[in-house]
Amino acid sequence: MRKHIRAVMLAAAAATPFAANAYGPDDFLKWVEANQSAEPQFVEGDVITVDKADLVRPFIPTEFQDEWIFDGMEMTIKDAGDLTPATIYVDATEKFKGTATLAGDNAIENYTAGRPFDPEEYTPGTESGWKMVWNWMYRWQNEGLTVGEVHWVWVRRGGEHSGHDIMKQDGGKYAQFYTGGGSFERVLTGPYKRVMMSHRADLADSGYKLNNGEGFAKNTEFREYTGFTSPFDIAGTAFLILRYDDPRKADDSWAYIPSLRRVRRISVEVKSDSLLGTDHTLEDFYGFNGRPMEHEWEYVGTARMLVVARSRNTNTIYYGPNGWAVKDDYALRKVDIMRQYPKSPNHPYSTKFICVDRVSGESYYANAFDKAGELWKVWQLTKIWSEDPQFDAEEHEFNGEPTPDGTNFQVFQSINVIDLQNNRGTLVPTRGISAPRNDFSKIKRLLDVNYLTEGR
Question: Is-contact 301 119, C-beta < 8 A?
Answer without folding.
Answer: no
